[in-house]
Amino acid sequence: MEILQNRRWICLTLTLILKLNCSGEVESCTRRKVKRLLSFQRYCHASRLLRGLVPHTPGSLHLLDDDYLGQAGHMLSKVSAWNFDIFLFDRLTNGNSLVTLMCHLFNVYGLIHHFQLDMVKLHRFLGMVQEDYHSQNPYHNAVHAADVTQAMYCYLKEPKLAGQLSPLDVFLGLMAAAAHDVDHPGVNQPFLIKTRHHLASLYQNTSVLESHHWRSTVGMLRESGLLSHLPADMSQDIEQQLGSLILATDISRQNEFLLTFREHLDNQDLDLQLASHRHFILQIALKCADVCNPCRVWELSRQWSERVCEEFYRQGDLEKKFDLEISPLCNQQADTVPAIQTGFISYIVEPLFEEWQRFTEPSLLSQTMMGHLHKNKARWSRLRFTHPTSESQMQPHVEEDPEPEEQSLLFTV
Ligand SMILES: *[C@@H]1O[C@H](CO)[C@@H](O)[C@H](O)[C@H]1NC(C)=O
Ligand SMILES: [Zn+2]
Asked: Active site annotated at which positions (predicted)?
């Protein structure tokens, strides 16, 4: 009976999702999309098993689920581990890492019950977010979003923070992480401005991408009706707070946030009873999660580094093709992966995580992250000088770093 009911539920949601995502034309759906949706339905059923909602009885449906659970489900039981391999998780979930992870974390925190969320609407929303990431971007794709969400989850669990957070804080933190780069075009803001992209004029050349990620998220929230049962002022507040969190990921505002954070820590005046202070810490946590790649174990860290540089180089190739000036960091011949990474770590990641460690102290996770950060930095440093660029081979003494301010500006454009 339970199986029959579940099967009916699965068919119903699948039909719904197919209709909603494909405007009634199931035929136009790609096979990959259908495959993803199917495996997602399996996960939903499986997660009910995980939570003990469905008694585990043998049956053909369950055999499928167990097979599925055996891999991705086993990984989910260790989702708070800092060495969580999101690339593997994405393969095991058939490209559904973001939806699967978010569903799981919403269950872990009881957010569906707390906010009385409609499961079908939640699936619709998360599916839309995941699909709106560009899978052809080497870096800014749904796996990056899932990775940032997993890091955010680890930060929300920090002893200094966990006990102070309200369900709304957790909801906002996870939602902002999942959606913070949605529909990223794989090129940066200066590129959009100089090519007179409509987004640049829409957002008047400021936080162009971040504004777009936020407004797209709001659009999908409204389209899915996920928050339509909440009082208007509450859903408005959620939209505004999501905006403030997502806009904080604009790297050109890094100094502003870092200085304020440092000041709070120096004055020891952060009061997490205050919603405004918790919001500030969520902004910082999201910023940390967004640039935490160099704090991961080398094997994961290296993959992200190569991906982000590949995305830069593609922009550089586009600029070359259209006779535009090649942007900083985007020239594959001059800007090597080790050089980009050592700069990024020294001027963006290290200063931020030093303050985060001060805030979270004593924190095992922060210690682990700083350990990886220093090792990875040293490794990129060695690689930088053992594999110099052709340019520096000709002029071996010009490899001097520019002034710190100049160098950090490269990353904040
Ligand atoms: C945005 O930048 C472009 C190119 O520099 C410039 O032509 C345009 O006037 C700027 N728009 C705004 C609103 O500042
Ligand atoms: Zn990001």
From this structure: 140 (proton donor)
Q: Which numbered ligand comes closest to the C-alpha of 133?
A: 2
Please tell me if the CB atom of residue 205 comes closer than 6 angstroms to any atom of ligand 1: yes
**What residues have a C-beta under 5 A from ligand 2, the ion?**
181, 290
Mutate to test the pocket of ligand 1, among 192, 201, 325 (most ligand atoms within 8 A of CB): 201
Q: Which residues are annotated as a binding site for Zn(2+)?
A: 144, 180-181, 290
Domain boundary among 244, 262, 290: 290
Question: Based on the domain organization, do 344 and 201 belong to the same domain?
Answer: no
Using alpha carbons only, give the angle 66, 81, 352 rounded to the nearest 5 degrees.
Answer: 145
pTM listed for this prediction? 0.82
How far is Cα 197 from Cα 185, in angstroms, rounded to an integer?
11
The string of pLDDT tens digits covering residues 367-402 is 999 999 999 999 999 999 886 554 444 443 444 455
Q: Please give the mean pLDDT across all residues of the chain.
A: 85
Please report, for the domain that includes residue 309, its CATH number: 1.10.1300.10
Same domain, residue pair 47 and 135: yes
Low-confidence ranges of the chain (pLDDT < 50): 1-29, 32, 34-66, 390-400, 413
pLDDT at position 110 is: 98
Sign, CA torsion 221/226/228/233:
negative
CA 219 / ligand 2 centre spacing (Å): 19
Residue with the smallest CA separation from ligand 1 atom 13 is 204
Q: Which of 45, 104, 123, 140 is catalytic?
A: 140
Q: Could you tell me if the CB of 204 is within 6 A of ligand 1?
A: yes
Is 140 part of the annotated catalytic residue set?
A: yes
Query: How open is the CA angle 138-373-255, to the nearest 5 degrees?
Result: 80
Sign of the Cα torsion 36, 41, 44, 48 reads negative
Contact 14, 37 (CB under 8 A): yes
Q: How many domains does the chain have?
A: 2
